[in-house]
């Protein structure tokens, strides 16, 4: 099976926030901790992908990754991996936690026990999986589609478990092919080819509804505290003007052209979903209105308003799909 997974936009945005935060900003620790968590999650997803693609299922199969299912007004569920076939849908919830893990019942959670005996609690992955299954079942039912939904939690790390129920839907990633092939074998077809293809198209369109929340809003960061101007790609220092088109880093010696696209992308990822001429001039430290207009028109941004009220927008979820895609063959 072919698996295509994009580099997480949220993780990339966190990395850009870390680059633009000043060294003494108190938000740095919070952003670094979140980067660590997101990198671990992404690493687990990639490990699961390797085994999903080794799975051999006959007939039509489609793998969707990082799927967001809308539950209602302002509510949604994120699914790491969804394997679709005419016989059923299977959700793979990927996890990677180091060390010994303890399954706790009241409330349901897992605890990672470090060598010094310190226990760190994490949300129960079984509850997460059950929530995703129910969301997927409700989504299908609301569209009149009859298709069974099942799933498992796949751990990419080698863990010793304490208190894990025998029937818990938790497996190591290496068992993903056996799990999927056995599940597929015992189920009859529920959809014909036309119905299956229509289902795939409907689910692929779900991603078009996702709205991006800038990092500053998520973390309560004052945008005025971010570094302005062009940043060095090597050391994240603010670049100094060399010529009309070039910049250089006084710290590490890097020299290059002004990267307006990276600067504008940082604005959308970190600060606000729209940008206007004055905001670009302030963020990029430009002086000319005409130069700012020319720069904004260089890129495929959505345009709204007119004259001095013209704004440009970009939704990172929809418009950056092709930029950070990881393909596994």
UniProtKB/TrEMBL annotation:
PROSITE patterns according to UniProt: NERD, ZINC_FINGER_C2H2_1
Domain of life: Bacteria
Pfam families: NERD
Ranges for domain NERD: 40-159
Name the record gives this protein: Nuclease-related domain protein
Organism name: Bhargavaea cecembensis DSE10
């Amino acid at each position: 099976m072919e698996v295509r997974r994009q580099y997480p936009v949220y993780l990339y945005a966190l990395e850009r926030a870390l680059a633009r935060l000043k060294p003494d900003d108190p938000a740095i620790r919070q952003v670094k901790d979140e980067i660590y968590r997101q990198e671990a999650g992404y690493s687990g997803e990639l490990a699961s992908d390797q085994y999903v693609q080794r799975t051999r299922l006959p007939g039509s199969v489609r793998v969707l990754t990082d799927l967001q299912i809308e539950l209602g007004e302002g509510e949604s569920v994120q699914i790491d991996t969804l394997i679709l076939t005419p016989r059923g849908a299977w959700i793979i919830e990927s996890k990677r936690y180091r060390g010994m893990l303890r399954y706790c019942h009241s409330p349901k959670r897992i605890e990672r026990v470090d060598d010094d005996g310190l226990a760190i609690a994490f949300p129960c992955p079984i509850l997460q999986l059950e929530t995703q299954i129910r969301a997927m079942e409700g989504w299908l039912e609301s569209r009149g589609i009859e298709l069974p939904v099942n799933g498992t939690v796949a751990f990419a790390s080698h863990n010793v478990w304490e208190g894990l129920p025998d029937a818990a839907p938790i497996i190591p990633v290496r068992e993903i092919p056996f799990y999927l092939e056995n599940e597929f074998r015992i189920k009859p077809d529920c959809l014909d080819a036309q119905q299956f293809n229509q289902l795939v198209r409907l689910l692929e369109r779900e991603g078009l509804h996702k709205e991006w929340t800038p990092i500053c809003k998520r973390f309560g960061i004052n945008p005025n505290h971010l570094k302005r101007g062009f940043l060095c790609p090597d050391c994240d220092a603010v670049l100094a003007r060399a010529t009309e088109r070039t910049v250089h880093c006084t710290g590490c010696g890097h020299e290059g052209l002004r990267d307006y696209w990276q600067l504008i992308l940082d604005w959308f990822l970190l600060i606000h979903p729209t940008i206007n001429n004055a905001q670009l001039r302030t963020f990029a430290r430009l002086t000319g209105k005409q130069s700012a207009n020319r720069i904004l028109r260089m890129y495929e941004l959505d345009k709204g308003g007119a004259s001095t009220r013209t704004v440009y927008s970009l939704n990172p979820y929809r418009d950056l799909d092709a930029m950070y895609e990881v393909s596994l063959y």
